[in-house]
Specification:
mainly beta, Protocatechuate 3,4-Dioxygenase, subunit A
């Protein structure tokens, strides 16, 4: 069985699963908890999880500039048929100008993102988040995503990408096409009210230390 390329970052160590009562969106704060990955430090969603996480969230505050965006999907167990309850999805991304926070630009702000949110699946495995389409700063436009659950430490999965982005390499497009509904490359549709919508299902693996699932 062949496996697609690994995500651009994978978690190798995480902090304690502390709980901090915060809103899904807030101004960046010095010292947002981070965790070690193979290519540097990244925000640790489990370390700063707010109270009362639901299966859906709105990340952006009222009046946030940008194209409104809604992403939804189902997280499945490794059998690809059974929804996975109790899984937390943590996502974060830049604003419409390509900044993770107003103080710094590009990668410098990645460890302290202003726009971030958490979702926890119920019995049906569903998740949904509303935000804005991120701005481009390096490579394809993307939304970072981490998953964690009981017995599964937080890990980084392939970013949400968007079909039609000319910065996605052709080789990656071919790879993603083989992944079907689990493809990280999301096709967006525009509703009459201007909301961009897309779907992406996620798949847990038998081995929590191999977060990137096989293509077929």
């Amino acid at each position: 069985m062949s496996y697609p390329s690994p995500p651009s970052r994978r978690t190798v160590a995480v902090g304690a699963f502390g709980v901090v009562a915060t809103a899904a969106w807030s101004a960046p704060k010095p010292g947002f908890p981070t965790m070690a990955t193979l290519s540097g430090r990244m925000p640790c969603g489990a370390c700063a999880e707010p109270a009362g996480v639901s299966w859906r969230t709105t990340i952006t505050p009222p009046g946030e500039p940008g194209q409104p965006l809604q992403i939804s999907g189902v997280i499945y167990r490794p059998d690809r048929r059974t929804p996975a309850p109790g899984v937390t999805l943590f996502v974060f991304h830049t604003d419409a100008s390509g900044r993770y926070n107003p103080q710094v630009s590009g990668y410098a702000g990645e460890t302290n993102p202003r726009l971030r949110g958490w979702m926890r699946t119920g019995a049906d495995g569903r998740y949904q988040f509303r935000t804005i389409k991120p701005g481009q700063y390096s490579g394809p436009v993307h939304i970072h995503a981490h998953l964690y659950a009981a017995g599964r430490p937080e890990w980084f999965i392939r970013e949400y990408l968007f079909a039609g982005d000319p910065l996605i390499p052709q080789a990656d497009r071919a790879e993603f096409a083989r992944m079907g509904r689990y493809s990280p490359m999301v096709t967006l549709a525009r509703s009459p009210n201007g909301l961009l919508t897309g779907e992406r299902d996620l798949l847990l693996t038998d081995d929590p230390h191999r977060p990137w699932p096989p293509a077929k």
